[in-house]
UniProtKB/TrEMBL annotation:
InterPro entries: GlpE_sulfurtransferase, Rhodanese-like_dom, Rhodanese-like_dom_sf. This is Rhodanese-like protein. PANTHER family: FAD-DEPENDENT OXIDOREDUCTASE, PYRIDINE NUCLEOTIDE-DISULPHIDE OXIDOREDUCTASE. Residues 3-89, 121-207 form the Rhodanese domain. It comes from Caldimicrobium thiodismutans.
Amino acid sequence: MPFVLIDLREKKVAEKEHLPSAINIPLKELEKYKDKFPTHKKAPIIVYADSDELAIKGFNIVRNWGYEHTAYLPGGISAWKQAGGQILAGALKKEIVYVPKPKPGSFPVEEFKKLVASPEMSDKYFIIDVREADEYATGAFKYAKNIPLSQLEGSLNEIPKDKEIILYCATGVRSEMAYNTLKKAGFKVYFVDAKIEFQNGKYEIISNQ
């Protein structure tokens, strides 16, 4: 799921009626589940209870853990039903499964890791490092061509049309901007939504999702 929905009510109450995709973690047990929450702090977390007072308590606990996209459902399940929302009955899961929704045009980070670690470059892809030349000089993937974002529009003739283009930078921000430029120019292009750091001949790739 691209979000985490938590029913903060007691197990027996939640099993009588709950929202689709909800996970049951009673408010009094919430603190014990801190280590079970997504490692990605931008994961959307939504909590609800029978009263806004209890929901806000749960909201504050999760928000204090650093999840900046935390929210609670005002009015709880009653408001949801009044709005015509679907209600389910039966056992709820307690395991939190968060699968972030990838940004349009993003290349799977795990696949990119395998690609750059491969001893030979696939003929299918053409990798472009859109960082500035001085950044590129500190370290880069051996198959990557350096075309800084600032020079990209004037360098379109250097980019093959018969290959899939993969763009990367240090944070994913410039590569996404470059993606939009090349997409408009008609290229089949992707960008790596990750933080990439080069140091002492080694690199680290950390997904932004």
